[in-house]
Design brief:
Layout: E1 47-49, E2 60-63, E3 91-99, E4 118-121, E5 131-140, E6 146-148, E7 151-156, E8 178-179, E9 191-198, E10 205-210, E11 219-221, E12 231-243, E13 254-257, E14 261-264, E15 277-281, E16 284-288, E17 292-295, E18 303-312, E19 315-326, H1 332-335, E20 339-342, E21 349-354, E22 363-368, E23 374-380, E24 386-390, E25 396-404, E26 409-416
Parallel strand pairs: 13-19
Antiparallel strand pairs: 1-4, 2-3, 3-12, 4-10, 5-9, 5-12, 6-11, 7-8, 7-10, 14-17, 15-16, 15-18, 18-19, 20-21, 21-24, 22-23, 22-25, 25-26
Length: 417
């Protein structure tokens, strides 16, 4: 049986300091179950609404998985409130951030002084004295009667949940670390809200909403689909809290079969999500996001360079990764566990043992540096299934590639010290 295998070439620790988003489930993709009704933001894992209302008004959760339900009010991208795709992937939240306090037209019993606050949890507490960049994306829906400013984020230890306020109340007793003074009125594009702050080390939660009284909020009457609506209604996606000095991380270099699709980026880092990253190939912007999918070249042994550019509150960093192609039909069964290489680390003198028989023929060794250059190569001669290679190369990390005459390949990271 033939397998497609993509072997990691360089340990993650050899790359730049990994980018880490402290927000859990930052793109609201993970869920306990698909949304099939109102007030279901808590189905997005690690997210909830504070001071939640018992009435049928409140924070919504939208996910494309919910399209299978007949209630079209929560479908993505087309539903009864708006037409919009998430900023990334398939999930997003929706909430009321401003109410003009005009009683709702009778005979409706709905409250006329109501706000939503979305709260998420962090992976761990922030570090005292360290500066962090907070960002999130919002979109004003067509159902909004108002566009507004003062949309912000407040980070604390969760104490905001204990405020003695009734459901749907305005929360104006705290000061958000980040908020916008610009009125967000775009109904065609997602808009990024971003700012930085100095942590005190107690922050474990992030709450997003409007923390200012109506008198301090600037608004524009929109009167889109429903001019009688007295509130603003925004979507939210891709929330991040990132150390201001976080570096871009393009992930490890990879090998892949000709023409196959493969994810690139910090694939193994589950915390590297929801951040602003743009990917370039041959000088052209090709995609955005922390992890993207690309197609390998159709040319055997081709090497493609991908560059990721990351923007953290204006701190722009770059990183590169190499994608190398190999021939089709690499056999996992015959070569995956065929060799033992020791000692590793070594002083350059390496012993290689194998469980292969003579049907595999000659074995050729190549040693690559971290830039993909061949620094040494030779044909191995096995005596009683054992051979050796002496590497006269500078100390550092390398990739040892072993290949037989049929084109099967085994690669392993080695360290010379």
């Amino acid at each position: 049986m033939k397998y497609v295998i993509a072997i990691l070439l360089i340990c993650v620790t050899l790359k730049s300091v990994a980018q880490v988003n402290f927000v859990r489930n930052p793109d609201l993709e993970q869920y306990s179950s698909c949304p099939d009704g109102l007030n279901l933001i808590n189905r997005a894992l690690f997210w909830s609404a504070i001071i939640d209302s018992a009435s049928e008004i409140g924070m919504e959760y939208y996910n494309a998985c919910g399209n299978k339900y007949p209630d079209g009010s929560r479908h993505v991208p087309i539903n009864t409130r708006f037409i919009q795709y998430p900023h990334s992937d398939s999930g997003m939240g929706g909430f009321v951030l401003y109410y003009d306090k005009t009683p709702y037209p009778p005979p409706s019993p709905l409250p006329f002084d109501y706000r939503d606050y979305l709260q998420g949890r962090l992976f761990k507490s922030l570090i005292n004295g360290k500066t962090y960049c907070v960002s999130f994306w919002v979109y004003m829906t067509e159902v909004s009667g108002y566009a507004q400013n003062k949309i912000g984020a407040y980070l604390d230890d969760g104490a905001i949940n204990k405020l003695p306020l009734p459901p749907g109340s305005e929360v104006t007793s705290v000061v958000p670390q980040v908020y916008t003074n610009d009125i967000i009125k775009d109904t065609a594009n997602w808009v990024k809200i971003e700012g930085s702050f100095l942590a005190n080390g107690t922050e474990t939660h992030i709450t997003i909403g409007n923390f200012f009284p109506n008198s301090a909020v600037d608004t524009i009457t929109t009167n889109y689909w429903f001019g009688s609506y007295q509130y603003s209604y925004y979507l939210i996606d891709d929330v991040s809290v990132v150390a201001i000095d976080a570096k871009a991380n393009a992930g490890v270099d990879r090998w892949v079969e000709q023409g196959k699709s493969i994810p690139i980026g910090p694939v193994e880092d589950s915390t590297a999500r929801g951040m602003e990253c743009k990917w370039y190939h041959k000088g052209k912007l090709i995609d955005s996001g922390n992890v993207i999918s690309v197609n390998a070249s159709s040319i055997k042994y081709a090497v493609d360079t991908y560059v990721v550019v990351q923007n953290v509150c204006g701190n722009i960093t770059r990183d590169t990764m190499l994608l190398r192609t190999v021939g089709l039909g690499i056999s996992k069964m015959s070569f995956e566990n065929a060799f033992s290489i020791y000692p590793n680390p070594s002083n350059g003198s390496i012993t290689i043992t194998t469980n292969l028989n003579k049907k595999n023929g000659a074995i050729y060794a190549k040693v690559y540096d971290l830039l993909g250059r061949v620094v040494q190569q030779e044909k191995l001669l096995f005596n009683n299934k054992e051979s050796g290679i002496n590497l006269n190369i500078p100390n550092g990390s390398y990739i040892l590639e072993l290949k037989d005459e049929a084109g099967n390949v085994h690669r392993e990271r080695i360290v010379i010290e």
